[in-house]
């Protein structure tokens, strides 16, 4: 960005010739990075991550429905526990992951 602005000043503001080096004084690479990196992360989340996440959730919702009656043995502390259903356990996972994404959106 700094070099771009220097070039534009050279091309469009000949009366400022020789002052381009002052651009770095007020615009360092970290000034650009501190703004552009969070912006690029936000755009990636909004335009890619959440879209794919929602698609994955939809697929899991189908699994929850299709496997709602499939029994499985639950485990607690690494030992067999009360029987449960696969669909129910996947639904618990979905509920937790949705909560985490809600928190992520707040960040």
Structure, explained:
The chain is α+β, with helices and mostly antiparallel strands. The chain has a single domain (2-106), classed as Fumarase C, Chain A, domain 2 (Up-down Bundle), CATH 1.20.200.10. The protein is 70% helix and 12% strand. The protein has a two-stranded antiparallel ribbon. The protein is rod-shaped and about 80 Å long. The two termini are 27 Å apart. The relative contact order is 0.08.
How are the secondary structure elements laid out?
Elements: H1 2-12, H2 22-26, H3 29-66, E1 71-76, E2 79-85, H4 86-106
Antiparallel strand pairs: 1-2
Helix pairs in contact: 3-4
CATH level-4 homologous superfamily: Fumarase/aspartase (Central domain)
Class of secondary structure makeup: alpha+beta
Q: Fill in the CATH topology.
A: Fumarase C, Chain A, domain 2
What shape does the CA trace take?
A: rod-shaped
- CATH class (first level) name: Mainly Alpha
Number of domains: 1
Mean pLDDT: 91
Round the Cα radius of gyration to an integer and report it. Answer: 26 Å
Low-confidence stretches: none
List the secondary-structure elements in sequence, H or E: HHHEEH
Number of helices: 4
Counting DSSP E segments of at least 2 residues, the number of strands comes to: 2
Strand order of the largest sheet: 1-2
Largest sheet: number of strands, sense, barrel closure: 2 strands, antiparallel
End-to-end Cα distance, whole Å, is: 27 Å
- How much of the sequence is in beta strands? 5-15%
Helix content estimate: over 70%
CATH architecture grouping: Up-down Bundle
């Amino acid at each position: 960005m700094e070099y771009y602005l220097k070039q534009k000043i050279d091309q469009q503001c000949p009366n400022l010739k020789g002052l381009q080096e002052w651009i770095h004084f007020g615009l360092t690479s970290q000034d650009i990075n501190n703004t552009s990196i969070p912006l690029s992360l936000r755009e990636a989340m909004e335009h890619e991550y959440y879209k794919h996440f929602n698609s994955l959730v939809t697929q899991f919702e189908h699994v929850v429905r299709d496997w709602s009656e499939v029994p499985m043995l639950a485990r607690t502390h690494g030992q067999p526990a009360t029987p449960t259903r696969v669909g129910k356990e996947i639904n618990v996972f979905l509920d937790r992951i949705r909560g985490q994404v809600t928190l992520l959106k707040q960040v």
